[in-house]
Amino acid sequence: MRFLEKAPAKINLALDTLYKRSDGYHEVEMIMTTVDLADRIEVSPLKSDEIRIVSENRFVPNDHRNLAYQAARLIKNTYHIRQGVEIYIEKQIPVAAGLAGGSSDAAAVLRGLNKLWELDLSLEQLAVMGAEIGSDVSFCVYGGTALATGRGEQIKELPAPPPCWVILAKPTIGVSTQTVYQNLNLDEVDHPDVQRMIQALHEESYEGMCKEIGNVLEPITIQLHPEVEQIKSHMKEFGADAVLMSGSGPTVFGLTQQETRAQRIYNGLRGFCDEVYIVRMLGSRSSLD
Ligand SMILES: C[C@@](CO)(OP(=O)(O)O)[C@H](O)COP(=O)(O)OP(=O)(O)OC[C@H]1O[C@@H](n2ccc(N)nc2=O)[C@H](O)[C@@H]1O
Ligand SMILES: Nc1ncnc2c1ncn2[C@@H]1O[C@H](COP(=O)(O)OP(=O)(O)O)[C@@H](O)[C@H]1O
């Protein structure tokens, strides 16, 4: 018996940091939503008692460094499972992009192994386990749209954003989340208004959502990698209604409600950037079923 799970990428519509905690993490307020660019995860039982990672993507580690491996090890040890598992990862999400690819793979493994080993755990229980692997894994267990607080692991469901096209453009640089956070000076932060973004989502206001997007990590990554600013400028020139970097970057996303304009932005950006995608927001949690 094998189980297939979709592992969608996320974007941060808002990312605010409140203060640095004594454990070294930042207390955050983030509005996250999944998009239909997804890895495909397949979990199947092995006769030998081992965790085997299989992926054709050369940027994805096939050992304990893989977040999918860590998820399998955690659930296996917690519930004293003696059976081994092969985890096949078909990678579609660019790696180290600010799109939570690794976190979403880990979340998909938790969901998949819950089924394979008939553990009958709730999403809440899986999300608590996910937080041990990384700050974004809990959100990825649920998918959909949510307010994430704490260091990112406290999840509160929000209404789906108004329908629109999302153009993703990833420059050919990798960004370390840790480095970006290390360079953040909390005294110089221009805070987005997360409450007004939540209100815009409740009001189903596309204009409100575009107005309130903001990410305190964006200026840090731009300072380290000025090409992010260039991509932002191009997206605006080609007609995106709102443009923001996702997470710690370097992927930039642009929003539009018009399909022809989305295509124009996509075509225009392909001249500057190798990895460009047109996607839709998945909206609500049920899209993972
Ligand atoms: C910034 C965000 C926004 O969605 O996304 P990405 O750019 O990684 O996609 C995430 O919160 C990233 O989550 P994740 O990638 O799971 O990070 P973790 O492994 O937990 O943390 C990596 C490092 O980032 C810093 N970190 C992370 C989260 C947080 N709230 N405060 C922090 O200071 C810490 O230095 C930590 O050691
Ligand atoms: N399953 C995985 N897919 C992608 N990257 C992974 C995975 N497991 C571990 N990693 C490592 O995690 C780091 C961050 O990757 P990723 O999750 O794609 O980015 P981000 O945290 O920016 O959203 C990379 O350096 C990569 O080597």
From TrEMBL:
Residues 66-144 form the GHMP kinase N-terminal domain. GO terms for biological process: isopentenyl diphosphate biosynthetic process, methylerythritol 4-phosphate pathway; terpenoid biosynthetic process. Pathway: Isoprenoid biosynthesis; isopentenyl diphosphate biosynthesis via DXP pathway; isopentenyl diphosphate from 1-deoxy-D-xylulose 5-phosphate: step 3/6. SUPFAM superfamilies: GHMP Kinase, C-terminal domain (SSF55060), Ribosomal protein S5 domain 2-like (SSF54211). Its EC number is 2.7.1.148. One of its GO terms (molecular function) is 4-(cytidine 5'-diphospho)-2-C-methyl-D-erythritol kinase activity. It catalyses: 4-CDP-2-C-methyl-D-erythritol + ATP = 4-CDP-2-C-methyl-D-erythritol 2-phosphate + ADP + H(+). It comes from the Bacteria. Coiled coil: none annotated. ATP binds at P94, V95, A96, A97, G98, L99, A100, G101, G102, S103, S104. The keyword Hydrolase does not apply. Pfam families: GHMP_kinases_C, GHMP_kinases_N. Transmembrane segments: none annotated. The active site is at K10, D136. Keywords: ATP-binding, Isoprene biosynthesis, Kinase, Nucleotide-binding, Transferase. Catalyzes the phosphorylation of the position 2 hydroxy group of 4-diphosphocytidyl-2C-methyl-D-erythritol. PANTHER family: 4-DIPHOSPHOCYTIDYL-2-C-METHYL-D-ERYTHRITOL KINASE, CHLOROPLASTIC (PTHR43527:SF2). Belongs to the GHMP kinase family. IspE subfamily. This is 4-diphosphocytidyl-2-C-methyl-D-erythritol kinase. It comes from Pontibacillus yanchengensis Y32. The gene is ipk.
